[in-house]
Write a structure and sequence with these properties.
Layout (H helix, E strand, L loop, with lengths): L3 E4 L4 E6 L2 E7 L12 E4 L15 E2 L2 E2 L5 E2 L8 H25 L1 H8 L3 H4 L1 H44 L5 H27 L4 H28 L7 H19 L5 H7 L13 H7 L1 H31 L4 H29 L1 H21 L3 H15 L2 H12 L5 H30 L4 H16 L10 H21 L1
Antiparallel strand pairs: 1-4, 2-3, 4-5, 6-7
Helix pairs in contact: 1-5, 1-6, 1-7, 1-10, 4-5, 4-7, 4-8, 4-15, 5-15, 6-11, 6-14, 10-11, 10-14, 10-15, 10-16, 11-12, 11-13, 12-13, 12-14, 12-16
């Protein structure tokens, strides 16, 4: 086990590898000079093979003299800057991935000469990947560490894109989309769990998921423009393959120090009453908040991706829009989602997650009704863009809430399960929409989305307050108290 040495800023710092003194530095002459409280610097045996690098050193959670716990930040330790950059670019890729299938749906349907129901298997296949990753994430982190987990996820994405870009037979395409779903589920869990343990989590997650929206905004514009110009629809995936390879390399470098040994050290298993270690997945699934928020995110992803995937088809078939131009409406929705996550994330943290998420959900229903019922293309486009603005911040807000409700040892497992299980909704509900649209028309998208968001409201009000203000619970408490008072008066 690696030795640890505790020191204060401006004192000499001695680094150890195993039992061997490796190098002595003066904190004044290094980036460590900014540390104002005792830190623990740890180098795992065998990692120091050349000149000292920030990749080789890790800060544990720091405690001041008062015992208060301080989380890592986006730039402390310095290697976190590369990790956050790798995650941000990864979320751009995931946004592009999720928005592409729906934007190209009409072209895929024409190419394979199949109906909505059959083509919608491209939405359903990733669900198996998401669900599989939900049960594998904990074991992958224990066996491979965070490094091996993110590299595995990125390799799966590269394999999927390498298959799809050649437009193979439809059954092979469906399998490739399933592989992509497994990759996205793996990465979503690992990246969200890492970010959840950083300071300023609302702002960081808002930026992460906002950049997901950036990718989803770009993708429909570029992919439909390429297909409309006469290029085969699948050629867009050559671009996706190039992006995935670059992000694979960046993640490998940034997370190289996140080994399985380090993960087990930072996340020791809980010990049961019989003195034996409990399985992390079993413990997480026994926590009702894991299950509640997993279902919440399942509905969320179903509504978010289902709506984004079928906007173009809805606008073409129900609003008589030009297929070459309706990609801009889908991009407007994703742009709104991006803006909401990046801007409203700062508001959410100051007022309270529970309160603001309730407001966001109710406003999303209002503007979804505008999108559904407004007869003109312009009004529908504005309505769906505003749905994106208020619906976008809900996902990162739910992740923050789950982080605060779970003990740290369950962050990777609980958050990973909820994120991956929720990702299944991004595949299941677009498929359901396709099957229903085949029989009734694309208008069925709208009542389905309204029903999903309404179900989310019901789940959300059962989540306990994890904010300082508790505004939402005070309002609900007053309402229930007044209702009880009225009932007592009537019975009297």
């Amino acid at each position: 086990m690696a030795a640890e040495q505790t020191t204060a800023a401006n004192d000499p710092i001695t680094l150890y590898e195993g039992d061997r003194n490796v190098e002595e530095l003066d904190a004044d002459m290094t980036e460590l000079a900014s540390v104002k409280s005792p830190v623990v610097i740890d180098i795992l045996p065998g990692t120091l093979t050349g000149p000292l690098s920030v990749v080789d050193t890790e800060f544990t959670e720091v405690r001041n003299n008062d015992g208060a716990e301080h989380l890592q930040t986006w730039n402390n330790p310095p290697v976190n800057k590369w990790r956050v950059l790798a995650i941000l670019l990864g979320f751009v890729m995931m946004g592009m991935n999720d928005a592409t299938t729906g934007a190209l749906l009409l072209y895929i349907e024409s190419y394979y000469q199949q109906n909505y129901t059959v083509i919608s298997l491209c939405f359903l296949a990733p669900a198996f990947g998401y669900m599989t990753s939900a049960f594998l994430n904990s074991s992958m982190h224990i066996i491979l560490g965070r490094r091996g987990t993110v590299i595995s996820g990125m390799v799966l994405m590269c394999v999927a894109y390498a298959i799809i870009c050649w437009a193979p037979p439809l059954p092979v395409i469906v399998i490739a989309y399933g592989i992509a779903g497994l990759g996205v589920g793996t990465l979503d869990a690992a990246w969200n769990a890492f970010a959840a343990d950083l300071q300023n989590v609302n702002e960081i997650m808002g930026l992460m998921h906002g950049l997901y929206g950036v990718g989803a905004t770009i993708s429909p514009l570029v992919s439909t423009a390429m297909a409309a110009s006469g290029l085969l629809w699948s050629y867009y995936y050559f671009i996706m393959l190039g992006i995935a390879v670059a992000i694979l390399c960046l993640n490998g470098y940034a997370f190289w120090g996140e080994t399985a040994a380090k993960y087990l050290k930072d996340h020791p298993p809980a010990v049961g009453e019989n003195g034996e270690s409990q399985g992390r997945l079993t413990e997480a699934l026994k926590n009702r908040y894991t299950i509640s928020l997993a279902c919440f995110l399942f509905f969320y992803m179903g509504a978010e991706v289902g709506l984004g995937s079928w906007i173009v088809t809805f606008m073409v078939t129900e609003r008589d829009g030009d297929p070459a131009k309706m990609g801009a409406v889908a991009s407007g929705y994703w742009a709104g989602l991006t803006a909401g996550r990046m801007i409203l994330g700062f508001v959410t943290g100051r007022i309270g997650e529970n309160t603001m998420a309730t407001i966001y959900l109710l406003l999303s229903i209002v503007f979804e009704l505008v999108f559904w019922l407004a007869p003109s293309i312009v009004a529908s486009a504005i309505g769906v863009a505003l749905v994106g603005v208020f619906f976008g911040p809900v996902f990162p807000t739910a992740m923050v809430a789950l982080t605060r409700l779970l003990p740290k040892r369950l962050h990777v497992t609980g958050i990973g399960f909820a994120a991956s299980f929720g990702g299944g909704g991004a595949a299941v509900f677009p498929f359901i929409t396709g099957a229903m649209a085949q029989a009734k028309g694309a208008w069925v998208l709208q009542p389905l989305v309204v029903a999903l968001i309404s179900a989310m409201v019901v789940i959300w009000i059962t989540i306990p307050t994890v904010e300082e203000t508790g505004l939402r619970d005070r309002i609900l408490g007053k309402f229930m108290k007044r209702r009880g008072h009225n009932n007592d008066t009537e019975s009297g």
